[in-house]
């Protein structure tokens, strides 16, 4: 299918869709890459924003699909969601500059001084742009790991923390196995502590460590950000639903990386259809290259 044909078919789909108002809103809110403004009488430039714009648009989409940002959670999660609600409101007003500045303020991003202009450069990977700051609060959990070797220094229950959820594949079926009880070799185990990886091992130990009793620190998250563990993936293989801690989560979107351009786009999943949003184009398109795509993060909303 040609690009022009894809746009025509998608426009027809959007026009006849029960979510036409949502499609119209998204079309009107497609951001432009970067912005420049005056903040406190200082010229401020925000550049290379493709790594953050998809996440901010997802926040807007979440705020319109549910009441998650208005509910009460832990103090730490409430603080995050207050910022995300402010961002979604600014995006709703098509005020992308202020929305980006709000996220910069929340993450305490450092600026670069170029002549008389303050520059915030998002020429980063998505982990640094938003994932680490958001996931470490949103979905951080702790779990026990126990070694069955009585001579091991790590025999006793040891609490570890992580915020990582990884899409994995078993044969031809994709599974989210992060919260399942697992047994791993003790001498190869990596402990994830506060988002920083440390290797803690006893090289003489050949025991097995059980990872179990996972529990969320800030309560069950209303949405999840799942890492894609594959370099390339067919978009139609992405699970539409996952179960985490007996809770069902539905796919709402994912981010796509174009390596040849070092550029990120957002792919939303609406009415059983994928649509792609690119901050370098003022249009909504249907992804044509469905096979062997580099997806980075996948977003799921709790039902």
UniProtKB/TrEMBL annotation:
<dbReference type="InterPro" id="IPR040029">
    <property type="entry name" value="C14orf28-like"/>
</dbReference>
<protein>
    <submittedName>
        <fullName>Uncharacterized protein</fullName>
    </submittedName>
</protein>
